[in-house]
Specification:
mainly alpha; Serine Threonine Protein Phosphatase 5, Tetratricopeptide repeat
């Protein structure tokens, strides 16, 4: 059916074009022979083709353009009186005898153009006559194109200031009156088009009307080009008349398009000075008009105008632009009860953008916008629309982008309230945006109060929200979120130790509520933040009596113990052990022996009771040995107790090679270079001999289990330890012992049961090369190594 309609329309258009071409041919003949009567006859017949009602606006436009081109030629003929011998006044009367009204009015407009050019009558009189006469055609499409033709031929003949057709002082008003009258009539015809034909083709009619809207809008463009329309006239006459027509037409398509036209074609300074009038029309528009887009475009234009020059900013303050826009938006949202949430929030986003660009220094304005948005969101049970959610995120992101400083945003009391309206997922997205802003701008949040507000904003990342299941999250996303929070904790800093301690306590309060899944990410950052404070306070005594206990290392170590103990609910014994050892090192640097001892005790308790996996045990014991070796605070008794524990656990590891490596590592606990008096050569030798026994046992076990003794790597590693202590001057490590060990390794490698291993061979070769190198070096060390025979 649709296809047949389209085919019929093509056929009717072809017939219309053929009719125009046919009559235009005879019209041209008449023009060439200067025959006025025949020219008028055929031009009227040609224009009769425009009387059709069968074509859509798109097709009618094609037909109209054919006729328009021919009318240009006819106008040239009318201009030259020598060709047809009739005065323009008589010609103006003559064309009014055409039989049908539509051709008559097209001819009248064409002659009217020549009449004005001739200046035989005032332009305003001719224009007034033409605009009134055109009322004779009330068919929407035919009438619109006729009035469009009138606008086209008259636009360069308006009695404007500086125009050749300028008359007395009132003529600008006449030009404005003509354009406004033509605009009003065209708008009426355009709106009437909506109500033609059956209701079932409403969508098709709307599409057709959209195609015709520029014909109406051109009038407003012409108005904006009239030189004589100054701010006064625009304010008193032009804008009120246009708005009266816009409001009274009660058509949503026309209202939306014309409001947009007003905003786009007239100057920005006019909008600023007539803001109240323009905004006053908004609540009177139909509820279905997309007013949010109209107002958003107005605010965008005003924002750009404000950005164009600092000189215009006082104007904005003078006319109280923010207050007027804010009030108008409130009225529009109130008037349009059915406006969806996304519409209202979009308006607030535009208002906030305007505020940040025009009044960036007025945080109270920014907070006011957020407060109004919060009030609107409070009336909505749940923000389910994804587009509305995106707009809320845009609203919250705007201050961050503008100020590049979260500290400024933290001063906005309504910011957290708006954020609370987001669903859990989007709340997290927004929290990530805030953290990224802090990282990007390297912002420093330096007071506990600000940290409190910040962590309230980030609560979606820090703890489980109502109705959210932390175990349903995507693992990668969760890791990224928690690592961001951990990085953020390092950005919180204050030079004052008391305030820094308050910050740490505030962070602790929030992060401890994070649950077992989050603690492994946040506890290390918090612990290291506290340790950084300890390093700054190194050397201060903690036993100060008074109400207000200042930040002291002892107090912070107590806090650290509580922080690390929270990992027991995870459980994460390996992480807790590492943190206890870090704290022990810090306590060592602060010269707090008992505190350091307590941390080691906690580490050993974890090792005994919580760490069962053999690989984890190996890592843990090496960490304990390494940390203990660096400790200088312990007295003889405490050090012996801890060293004894470490060597005992080393010898009880599951696998023999692991036992061997841990035991020879313990040798370093008895020989510390930079500590006076801690050089116990005998116990070093005992450890190394014990390691050798374990290595031997490992070889024998391998022999029994596999029939081959396995690689000799352990022996070579022990040889390297011997060489280390030999160099350091341990009197118990002799060249003879090293010589015997080298012989033992060579014997093992040459035995029948030995497994060939290139790595062990290379390791031994490198070790022997090192001995050779030390021999050749000369000096004291050279002499020392000389006694080792290779």
């Amino acid at each position: 059916m649709m296809l047949n309609g389209a085919e019929d329309e093509e056929k009717w258009l072809a017939e219309g074009i053929a009719g125009i071409q046919h009559n235009a041919f005879y019209m041209h003949q008449a023009l060439d022979s200067n025959n006025l009567r025949e020219a008028l006859k055929y031009s009227a017949l040609m224009l009769s083709e425009l009387r059709t009602s069968k074509l859509s606006p798109h097709k009618y436009y094609e037909l109209y353009m054919r006729a328009f081109d021919e009318l240009r030629k006819l106008e040239m003929f009318f201009k030259d009186e020598s060709k047809h011998g009739v005065s323009v006044v008589d010609l103006y009367e003559l064309v009014q005898h055409a039989g049908n009204i539509l051709p008559r009015l097209y001819l009248l407009c064409t002659v009217g153009s020549v009449y004005i050019k001739s200046k035989e009558a005032p332009a305003k009189e001719v224009l007034k006559d033409l605009v009134e006469m055109c009322r004779g055609v009330q068919h929407p499409i035919r009438g619109l194109f006729l009035r469009s033709y009138l606008a086209q031929i008259s636009r360069d003949k308006l009695p404007d200031i500086g125009s050749e057709f300028e008359g007395d002082a009132e003529t600008v008003m006449d030009a404005v009156e003509f354009v406004l009258q033509n605009f009003t009539e065209m708008n009426k015809l355009w709106v009437r088009l909506q109500h033609q034909g059956p209701g079932t083709v409403r969508e098709k009619r709307e599409k057709e009307r959209n195609e015709l809207r520029d014909l109406v809008g051109k009038n407003l463009h012409v108005l904006s080009q009239i030189e004589g329309v100054d701010l006064g006239m625009y304010k008193e006459t032009v804008l009120p008349r246009i708005l009266e027509q816009v409001v009274n037409c009660k058509d949503d398509l026309a209202q939306y398009y014309l409001m947009d036209c007003i905003i786009q074609v007239f100057p920005d300074e006019y909008h600023l000075q007539t803001l109240e009038t323009l905004l006053g029309a908004c609540p009177q528009l139909q509820p279905t008009v997309d007013i949010k887009t109209v107002l958003s475009r107005l605010m965008d234009r005003l924002s750009n105008y404000a950005a164009s020059s600092p000189d215009v900013l006082p104007e904005f303050l003078q006319v109280e632009a923010f207050a007027k826009l804010s009030k108008a938006i409130g009225k529009v949202i109130e008037a349009q009860i059915d406006m969806p949430a996304v519409g209202a929030i979009t308006l607030y986003v535009s208002l906030l953008t305007f505020t940040l660009r025009v009044h960036p220094d007025r945080l109270d304005y920014v907070d006011q916008v957020l407060g109004a948005c919060d009030k609107k969101l409070s009336t909505i049970p749940k923000l389910g629309d994804s587009r509305a959610t995106k707009q809320v995120v845009a609203l919250l992101s705007a201050p961050l982008e503008k100020y590049n400083d979260i500290v400024t945003a933290l001063r906005l009391s309504n910011y957290p309230r708006v954020m609370d309206h987001l669903d859990n997922g989007t709340n997290k997205v927004m929290a990530m945006v805030i953290i990224q802003s802090i990282m990007k701008n390297n912002s420093c949040i330096s007071t506990a109060d600000k940290v409190e507000v910040l962590f309230e904003l980030l609560k979606g990342l820090i703890k489980d929200m109502d109705g959210a299941d932390v175990y349903e999250l995507d693992e990668e996303d969760f890791k990224e979120e928690q690592n961001s929070v951990a990085r953020l904790i390092h950005m919180l800093y204050n030079d004052e130790p008391e305030e820094m301690l308050k910050i740490i306590c505030t962070v602790r309060k929030h992060t401890m509520a994070g649950g077992p899944k989050r603690l492994p990410y946040t506890v290390p950052s918090l612990a290291f933040s506290a340790l950084r404070l300890v390093r700054r306070l190194q050397g201060q005594e903690g036993d100060i009596i008074g109400e207000e206990v200042p930040a002291t290392p002892k107090k912070i170590f107590q806090l650290l113990t509580q922080i690390i103990e929270s990992l027991s609910i995870v459980p994460a014994p390996e992480l807790a052990l590492r943190l206890y050892l870090q704290c022990a090192e810090a306590a060592n640097d602060c010269d707090l022996e008992h505190v350091a001892y307590e941390f080691f005790t906690q580490a050993f308790v974890l090792y005994e009771e919580e760490i069962a996996d053999s690989k984890s045990q190996v890592t843990a014991i090496h960490l304990i040995i390494g940390t203990l070796q660096r400790m200088s605070v312990f007295g003889v008794e405490n050090r012996d107790t801890l060293t004894h524990k470490a060597t005992g656990y080393s010898a009880r590891l599951l696998k023999k090679p692991d036992q061997c490596r841990a035991v020879y590592a313990c040798s370093h606990l008895f020989w510390v270079d930079d500590q006076d008096g801690l050089k116990d050569g005998e116990r070093v030798l005992l450890c190394l001999k014990r390691a050798l026994r374990i290595a031997n046992a490992a070889q024998q076990m391998a022999n029994v289990a596999r029939g081959s003794s396995g690689p000799v790597t352990l022996f070579v590693e022990i040889l390297n330890k011997y060489l280390y202590f030999f160099e350091k001057g341990n009197p118990q490590i002799t060249s003879a012992a090293i010589q015997d060990l080298i012989e033992l390794i060579k014997t093992e490698m040459q035995s029948d049961s030995a497994t060939p291993d290139t790595a062990s061979d290379a390791f031994l070769a490198s070790t022997l090369r090192y001995i050779q190198f030390q021999k050749q070096k000369g000096g004291v060390m050279g002499e020392k190594f000389e006694s080792i025979k290779l």
